[in-house]
Write a structure and sequence with these properties.
The protein is α+β, with helices and mostly antiparallel strands and 495 residues long. Helices cover 52% and strands 9% of the residues. The chain has one domain: Orthogonal Bundle (Cytochrome p450). It contains 17 helices and eleven strands. Helix 13 packs parallel to helix 17.
């Protein structure tokens, strides 16, 4: 047994050395990288980072290493951009070089490089261009989508009235309402709030969001090869993703059976027509896989951030009743009144309400690290050279919380978006949807949803907290992926 034991030890040492050298080669890279903390092979800087609050760790590192620095998440090299100047210089001034999508292992596992959000190269260009054009054709930013949002807001108001002034968690009705809007655009129709298939996909969406924010879910992005063999919530996330795909494929089958090539009803119809037009092109990106991925991208993006923002907005208004109870209500009553639905044309006449919404988005900071980018080629950035394919974190929180633009940035203050005359003030630092060529496809839709749904709720109800406003906790639950408010309840009183 002695020779066998020695051989085993020798092999283990050889494997360890190979892993060490492989990781070190990945981490050493090429060119003059930005500075950063010393990284260990295999694990990178994981032990030096607070994985439960990565944005805080990133902020602390920026103090030491400056606005551009390098970290390693496992063996994945990441260049971090911290502050408005660095983010703007990269995403806008060098937009082409920074237009790649960075690696996010769990997303790669589930999405496999398809769809709009996590694709790259020609696939990304074609699918993004098609999505933008199609959304515009179906009225994104135009009256037809505005009418869909107004209709859904009325369904939501009816649902809130049925609470009969009893306490409830607003997360569920807000998520259902926002999701129904993107469903009407993607699938062609809204769902009844009690529809079991609708409730199933909403529940799966919420479950996946929790799994993505979980510790094991975040560790998967650092150590995907290892985590593939470890049971845990990340495995359920992959199973749920397969359930989503089956749901979309079922809807696609229904659309094919009733498709009119001359009259697309929704995004799926438009994509199927494009597939038919490119049937002879063997290199076409318009295939069933990308149809499913793109549909899911729009559904998830159109459900998550807007509903979370609205949930946080109601919590903020409970915390600061003087904002809702006097200023916003007064503006709604004066501009909109009680007898018609709010419309987007009202927003320019409601500077205070608009400022409140912008401040909610700024402080909510839903995606603090931004969705990862990547450089598309070896890139000269300031005095550094960033190798092709390097993942980039444009830290949106560092821009949204910049104290030079927003005095006392941690405090909620609508005055951040108002000038001395009370008129709305735009800011180049307001980038909750990111910036540059990878800016959120649904930015226009999200802005409409947040304004119309929130003003419709406040037009019809007064918000009532269950505890003294000074005891309301507006601290966000932070993760590598997203921020979210803590669960809470409220009552709504008809006005």
């Amino acid at each position: 047994m002695e020779p066998l034991g020695a051989t085993t030890v020798f092999l283990a040492v050889c494997v360890s050395c190979l892993l060490f050298l492989s990781a070190w080669r990945k981490m050493s890279g090429s060119g003059k990288l930005p500075p950063g903390p010393v990284a260990f092979p295999i694990i990178g800087n994981t032990l030096q980072l607070n994985t439960r609050n990565l944005p805080q760790s990133i902020q602390e590192l920026s103090v030491k290493y400056g606005p551009v620095f390098t970290i390693y998440l496992g063996s994945l090299r990441v260049v971090v951009l911290y502050g408005q100047e660095a983010v703007k210089e990269a995403l806008i001034d060098q937009a082409d070089e920074f237009s790649g999508r960075g690696k996010l292992a769990l997303a790669d596992k589930v999405i496999k490089g398809g769809g709009i959000i996590f694709s790259n190269g020609e696939r990304w260009k074609q699918l993004r261009r098609f999505a933008l054009t199609t959304l515009r054709n179906f009225g994104m930013g135009k009256k037809s989508v505005e009418e869909r949002i107004q209709e859904e807001a009325r369904f939501l108001v009816a649902r809130l009235r049925n609470t009969h002034e009893r306490p409830f968690d607003p997360t569920i009705p807000l998520t259902h309402a926002v999701s129904n809007i993107i469903c009407s655009i993607v699938f062609g129709d809204r769902f009844d709030y009690e529809d079991q298939k609708f409730l199933t996909i909403i529940n799966l969406t919420q479950e996946n969001n929790e799994l993505l924010r979980s510790l094991l879910g975040q560790l998967y992005n650092f150590f995907p090869t290892l985590m593939d063999y470890i049971p845990g919530p990340h495995q359920l996330l992959i199973k749920n993703a397969e359930e989503f795909e089956r749901f979309v494929l079922e809807r696609v089958k229904m659309h094919k059976e009733s498709l009119d090539l001359s009259c697309p009803r929704d995004f799926i119809d438009a994509f199927l027509i494009k597939m038919e037009q490119e049937r002879q092109n063997n290199q076409s990106e318009f295939n069933t896989d990308n149809l499913v991925r793109s549909t899911l991208d729009l559904f998830f993006a159109g459900t998550g951030t807007s509903s979370t923002t609205l949930t946080y907005a109601l919590l903020i208004l409970l915390k600061y009743p003087e904002i809702e109870g006097t200023k916003v209500h007064e503006e709604i009553d004066r501009v909109v009144g009680r007898n018609r639905s709010p419309c987007m044309a009202d927003r320019s006449q409601m500077p205070y309400t608009d400022a409140v919404i912008h401040e909610v988005q700024r402080t909510a900071n839903i995606v603090p690290m931004g969705v990862p980018h990547a450089v598309t080629r070896d890139t000269h950035f300031r005095e550094y050279i960033i190798p092709k394919g390097t993942t980039i974190f444009p830290v949106l929180q560092s821009v949204l919380h910049d104290g030079r633009e927003f005095p006392k940035p941690e405090q909620f203050n609508p005055g951040h978006f108002l000038d001395e005359n009370g008129a709305f003030r735009k800011s180049d630092f307001f980038i909750p949807f990111s910036a540059g060529k990878r800016i959120c496809v649904g930015e226009g839709l999200a802005r409409m949803e947040i304004f119309l749904i929130l003003t419709t709720i406040l037009q019809n109800f007064t918000l009532k907290p269950l505890v003294d406003p000074k005891d309301i906790d507006i601290t966000l639950v932070t993760s590598f992926v997203s921020n979210t408010p803590k669960p809470y309840q409220l009552c709504v009183l008809p006005r």
